[in-house]
Write a structure and sequence with these properties.
Blueprint: H1 2-12, H2 18-33, H3 40-61, H4 67-92, E1 105-108, E2 115-118, E3 124-127, E4 132-135, E5 145-156, E6 165-168, E7 173-176, E8 180-185, E9 193-198, E10 201-205, E11 208-212, E12 217-221, E13 226-230, E14 244-250, H5 252-263, E15 265-267, H6 269-274, E16 279-284, H7 288-299, E17 307-310
Parallel strand pairs: 5-6
Antiparallel strand pairs: 1-4, 2-3, 3-5, 4-5, 5-8, 6-7, 7-10, 8-9, 9-12, 10-11, 12-13, 14-16, 15-17
């Protein structure tokens, strides 16, 4: 112990070349670290103070030296296990009187799960599977009622002329007073769609703002910064609320893949061979037996032998 301490003390005042000094410090520190003296902890703290003081002086002389950081890195590697404990305690137990920022309230749904939420203002939100709705704890005290969504949800917004309801999507803001609409907004605007059932909404995005009318469906293209409007009604967009899924002119191969994915089954060779024409129609998304019954009547295959096995969810 005394020998190791003497070596480090000597090296701290050594005026040799920098790389030699680094090696001397590191070797002496290793000897000191593995010394079994009972005063190890106290000596360690004192030694660190001396090294810190030495480094402060050395920084002034060699402010532009890259190798200076390498020297401290070697010594810090020895001290780090002891210092981390102190830092962790500071993080876990903050100073008295400190206050963490309030986190938004979030509702999340897993695969095959849905949820109905009533917001503090009375707005009803039906959240589809694998979706996330978030709003601040001061939702009712702001001049606007602001929420954010990733996934799909149906909103029946409570009217409040003094505080507009604002829905934040990826690149689009939906501003309303009181209305009903369905929104699908995946990360990166993949397949983003806003279907207005009742009332009126204003869509705001970089490059364009539009007013959406009932029965219209809007999608936003972030590349061209434009909205595309379709007047095809909202029944297809809101089918998930009725546990329905609508297929429009889907090819046989695509229909087979979608059926196997949506219902987590593997179709038999007979069923696959029978599905030989495009399909347009509506199937229940939560009833495999009924879905296969409808398809077997259209494509004339044996429903009882239609599936080989159930597949795990992807």
């Amino acid at each position: 112990m005394d020998k190791s301490r003497h070596n480090i003390n000597t090296h701290l005042h050594d005026a040799g070349m920098e790389h030699e000094l680094n090696e001397k410090l590191y070797r002496s520190w290793q000897e000191f670290e593995h010394d079994g003296d009972e005063q190890h902890a106290a000596e360690l703290a004192g030694m660190k103070e001396r090294i810190d003081a030495f480094i402060d002086t050395y920084e002034q002389d060699r402010a532009n030296s890259v190798s200076r950081w390498l020297a401290w890195g070697k010594i810090a590697a020895v001290l780090m296990p002891l210092l981390v404990l102190g830092m962790a305690a500071f993080i876990i137990f903050p100073l008295n009187g400190s206050k963490n920022e309030e986190q938004p309230l979030c509702v999340m749904t897993a695969a095959k799960e849905r949820a109905t939420i009533i917001l503090p203002d009375g707005t009803d939100v039906c959240l589809n599977s694998e979706s996330r709705l978030a709003y601040d704890t001061d939702f009712m005290s702001d001049t606007i009622r602001s929420v954010s969504l990733v996934g799909e949800a149906y909103f029946n917004v409570a009217k409040d002329a003094a505080r507009p309801f604002v829905l934040l999507l990826d690149n689009v803001v939906v501003r309303v007073l009181g209305t009903s609409f369905n929104v699908r907004s995946m990360p990166g605007n993949a397949g983003m769609e806003i279907a207005l059932v009742d009332g009126e909404v204003k869509l705001i995005a970089p490059g364009e703002q539009i007013i959406l009318k009932p029965g219209n469906i809007a999608s936003y293209n972030p590349d061209s910064r434009t909205f595309e409007i379709e007047e095809r009604g909202c029944r297809q967009a809101t089918g998930w609320l009725r546990h329905e899924k609508t297929y429009i002119n889907v090819s046989p191969d695509s229909l087979i893949r979608m059926i196997e994915h949506d219902y987590e089954v593997a179709l038999s060779a007979e069923a696959k061979a029978s599905i030989n024409d495009a399909f347009t129609g509506t199937l229940p998304d939560d009833n495999l037996h009924e879905a296969l019954s409808i398809l077997s009547e259209i494509y004339n295959f044996d429903m009882k032998a239609a599936t080989l096995k159930f597949k795990p969810a992807e």
